[in-house]
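Minutes, project check-in

Agenda point 3 was the complex the collaborators sent over. CS summarized: two entities, 735 residues total, and the question is how they sit relative to each other. Sequences were read into the notes so everyone works from the same version.
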Amino acid sequence: MTSSKNEILQRIRQANTSQVTGVRTQSTLIRMAPVGDTEPRMDHDDLVKLFIERVEDYRSTMVEIGPNELASAFEKVLKGIEAREGFDTICVAPPLLHLFNKTVAGYKVANPDQLTLTDYNSKVLGTLSGCAIGLATSGTIIFNSSDDEAPGISTLVPDHLFVVINESQIVQDIVGAITSFDLGRPLTMVSGPSATSDIELARVEGVHGPRNLTVFVVRQ
Amino acid sequence: MSKTSSTVHGPNGSIPKANTWLLRTEHHGEERGRTYFKSRSTREIRNLQMRKNISHATTTIREKRKKVVSEVPNWEDLRTRASQIKQHTLANLDVYLEEFERNVTKAGGKVHWARDAAEAREIALELVRESGASSVIKVKSMVTEEIGLNAYLSENGIEATETDLAELICQLAGDESSHILVPAIHRNRVEIRDIFEATFAQKGSLEADPPKIAEAARKHLREKFLRSTVAISGGNFLVAETGSVAIVESEGNGRMCLTLPNNVISIVGIEKVIPTMEDLEVFLTLLPRSSTGERMNPYTTIWTGRPPAQMAPEKETTEDRKSYNIILLDNGRTRVLSDEVGSQALACIRCSACLNVCPVYERVGGHSYESVYPGPIGAILTPQLVGDELAGDLAFASTLCGACYEVCPVKINIPEILIHLRSIHSDHRRDTMSGNLERGSFGIVGIVMGNTNLFNIASSSVSLILKYGGPLLNRVGKYLPPINGWVESRNLPKAPNGSLRDAYRKGTLDDLLKK
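CS then shared the predicted structure for the full assembly.
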């Protein structure tokens, strides 16, 4: 094993010393000049508007709510969703559990701690979770397995994903956004529902991940 | 399934080269193993279904890309930056690979090094065997295709299932992929329905409707996701400073493979390493817009050491802990690195923007390139990875229009590399008859074009030949050496209504242009 490594590193050094001109010969590790902003910096209100517009663009549902309206807004959304036989449970991230009495819109409310992989596949209709940040320019939600969030499997296996984001969590774009995370935990970036264009380039939502994404933006 | 799968050459084939696995050459008379772009494309171009599908796909993605790229005012700065990052990393590749290895190891993963396809396959097989699994699920990966991993695992009793929809279609049909991003684009919905019904779905159970077909794939693969214990992936980016790996995808099959099984094995080319997370931000802006024409792809997973846990990481027990192995693959890449012009190709992030704008690709399709890597990027990568003698003709599969260079998010100067590879090819043919004939002809052309009188005589005779002999030559030219090599895959142009020089002299330029 070591010999393969050494041989490859040796080949690389040989290849690079045979170069004679240009950047390729530099041996010091320089940093590049900054590239500037992807878009001019926006004020916060425009940023939130852009985020909403861009998330909707992925055929997701956006719901703007006030500070204490999550429980009622969530119930309303759930009532509008077509029932699926046998799927009688909603997984709710632990910090949001206090908002609900054992049920919501007729579904059992479950703590992810009590659910197994089989449950997610056969009885959980959807998951309600917080997130780390939102990127306005690309309409992206970033999860980093923090305490505000339901575990990764619960945002992946069920048909519906419901995300709550405070407007203060929305930043402009990815430049400067992911360098701030603790990489000890995995990062998952979500932009719209699962999708494919593999058949004649026709877009189909919900291949392996959630078929529907609903985002609740909490305005102050 | 009307199409038969073509031969892939293994280690026992007639070409004793370790990395010919990436070639998908067919039998061409006595010779095996090298690409024959000219004859294959002449055949492929008559496949009207394929051309219709590909042209629809490339046109659509091209338009989407243009729109989302125009939203980014500093797009050109980002391209320049991305190109600098890649050139800088390649110049210090040994340093960054070792840094990456240290950080992966620190975070609980294990790094393996493979000099060629055979070594990578063996390491992967050994790791699967250690886990005790008899089947694996796969995230779409160009590099596992390059090393012929699925066939090798299957020969050794391990069943590998592709989980990307298009890759699954290709796998079930025994097809080669025809596009880097949408590999099954040569198939239409009816064909795909038939492929599914001939394999896992019941006959007559499916409608030829994309959502219905995707739903069938969802059900079929869900089972496999739930019970598989080993997943094999590629990797889009390796971050040296943290030891993180990033996988960019759309369907969620990548997240499934990375989250559910307890053993994850990634096989990644050594050129995929980048220095920092800050660099990753640049590439995550460029890649989705260039590739699918979206502002961001549906899912990106970034992990360090061990991929995402099923449940919250703090609740994991020791038995739940995932094992993570990553195999860093050379397979000809260091040889590419030693070529000062050609090594730019190693900056490629596999977005496939160059395929979508290429007038040649759009007409001849991906199969004509007879390589895992089709299109303009394939035309510069394949000959360099397997050598000029096996795939040198691919450097001629281009009009040198330069559209690929213009859209490349990492600014690979594809036309420059094509010309460079053509000169290598012509050098290799220096002592052959056809090589000498060709050089001789170009010598004569050089003399003629250097002398006004000779040039005038030549241009008017060519006009006459085209006018009176053009149609005939188009019919019989393919039987007449030495022009057959040129005419067999090209039509001669129509004779012009007079030369530009004449018209200019006589003051009838406007008339000529009007015609």
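Noted in discussion: Helices of chain A lie at 2-17, 44-56, 70-79, 117-122.
Follow-up: revisit at the next meeting once the mutant set is ready.
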